[in-house]
Amino acid sequence: MSLVIVGTVAFDAIETPFGKTDKIVGGAATFAGLAASYLFPEVKLISVIGEDFGEDNLNILKSRGIQVEGVEIIPGGKSFFWSGKYHNDMNSRDTLITELNVLADFDPKIPASYQDCEYLLLGNLTPAVQMATLDRLENKPKLVVLDTMNFWMDVAMDELREVLKRVDVLTINDAEARQLSGEYSLVKAADKILQMGPKYLIIKKGEHGALLFGEGQIFSAPALPLADVFDPTGAGDSFAGGFIGYLAKLQSINFANMKNAIIFGSALASFCVEKFGTERLENLTQEEISNRIKEFVNLSKFEISE
Amino acid sequence: MSLVIVGTVAFDAIETPFGKTDKIVGGAATFAGLAASYLFPEVKLISVIGEDFGEDNLNILKSRGIQVEGVEIIPGGKSFFWSGKYHNDMNSRDTLITELNVLADFDPKIPASYQDCEYLLLGNLTPAVQMATLDRLENKPKLVVLDTMNFWMDVAMDELREVLKRVDVLTINDAEARQLSGEYSLVKAADKILQMGPKYLIIKKGEHGALLFGEGQIFSAPALPLADVFDPTGAGDSFAGGFIGYLAKLQSINFANMKNAIIFGSALASFCVEKFGTERLENLTQEEISNRIKEFVNLSKFEISE
Lengths: 306, 306
Fold this sequence. Notes:
Chain A is of the alpha/beta class. Chain A contains ten helices and 14 strands. Chain A has helices at residues 28-37, 55-62, 127-136, 150-155, 157-164, 174-181, 186-193, 235-250, 255-272, 286-300, and strands at residues 2-6, 10-16, 19-20, 24-26, 43-50, 67-74, 81-86, 93-99, 117-122, 143-147, 169-173, 200-204, 210-214, 217-221. The radius of gyration of chain A is 18 Å and the shape is globular.
């Protein structure tokens, strides 16, 4: 039984008010995989990289026990590269460089050893790749979580809608939920989106936390207020990885467990932003995670006795 | 022992995507007073109105048991009037008309019967009026809550800082917290603001809930996701009124009670926005309030057992 994550494994170069990096390891599947690896042991990635990525960088994943047989290495190819600069508010950023490189022709290959997949995270990629992954799995996973973004709604809405019919959980931000549904009210947006296929919708609101809709219920999860957000890159992916990793560990899918999964995802995301790139997610301890979860509990707990 | 609220009692004319009103009753003290009246019986207002306000409109307050001896009626004067139009997202609005009228010369008078004030809400007004009210109370209240806005930071920052030294709780929104402190991070902003005088800081984030800082702790309160926000006017004032009304009822000020007070304030605000103006706050039942509180509990409750 495994958790399979499809997404980018890539290089990032990041500038924030706190500093600047050269090319460092990034990518949605990287962050999601690292986050999930703290909660569930059998994490398997599907991605594509160039020869430039290098064994040392792959070891960041391998040393967390993440399987990379499905990460195709294109001989002579160059890995996907993204460079961005965050503004002072850390909530907006400019993309400086996007080089698709080997990602342009990404055709996901699923190794035979991945066919035990029961939990599947379709990271933010073109809907065609997400669909191909679903088609190539011999058995329908117990849970399919899909992450996407406004860009795919702009250029591939029809394909995106087809994939949505086959997923259990959709994670998007509030602006994307409004775009996808055409509704400003998030309650109305959720109603419409839940008719498109997903049984659960998670609306990510960054520093304002997240909302979970499903089973006729709503859950509002807090975000941990942080003194410094050092580098927001990968926070959403770490959230998704922590979320599905927790559910894979629990082997039980219902609204109550989804709520806790969101708290674990939020906790992993809160670590991610403390340092540049993957640095903070490379060597967390279970104690650190457990203490962070307690912070979330204390942050939102209240008891009203009338 | 009473709860005294200083603020505007006024006329509003409001346009939202749902409709348009003629002049209807509004004002910060009106909304705060109505909200507080559901939680605490001895609510007393200090304000100024013109002869145009009329007995019928004052009865909206009186019929909720709110005392208006401190609401000065200026013979021949006209009441403060504000007119605004909300955009489709309901989070931004344009002010169409602001007529200060009798508010321009507001000099708060404190009736002898108000000198039993133990809980004081200084509604959003010029800091000079807030200061005069504090000066004219013979005994220091047990709890002083101050609401203000960016406008006073722009035009009267020095006076505002003087008042801040004398209050226990400050309620502002996130943009105002950033403006007042010069810090983008709300954690750092709160640290600085708590050094300016208040022991507690509430940062209101509208549809994203609220944060409470104080006693070295942080509480994140959810906002109830609503299908329709009919008219946001008065939501912040209803929040403040519900907040201080709950603490006045409890007669006990600590972080745990403040958390619950924020939930009650949020619940009252969530009613306020369901109809135009004060309509929804005029005849709530205790059962409706109690059910709404339960919705807040369910919205944010999670239980993690590891």
